[in-house]
Amino acid sequence: MNIYVGNLSLETSEEELRKExxxxxxxxxxxxxxxxxxxxGQPRGYGYxxxxxxxxxxxxxxxxxxxxxxxxxxxxxEALPLSDKGGTGxxxxxxxxxxxxxxxxxxxx
Length: 109
Description:
Helix content is 18%, strand content 39%. The protein is of the alpha+beta class.
């Protein structure tokens, strides 16, 4: 089960987050998101915890949602899948070259 954890302090480490979730079961991975793509490497204040089973994840969510870490109330919910379409089609944007006013989006599978 993949779990979203929001409103983290910028000082929170992945090891700290792992320790909180280990109390409820086996933690497979912990990732705190950061701005590595724009160069600063600054933490974004949210991350993901992957747990071995859905029941362990549900227990962690039930116990940690609304709890505090580093004096901040954290948000803990089941992470949504990347896409609700189920397909892996690519997104193409076609523009009208005359005046460039109309944009049309369509998914191609």
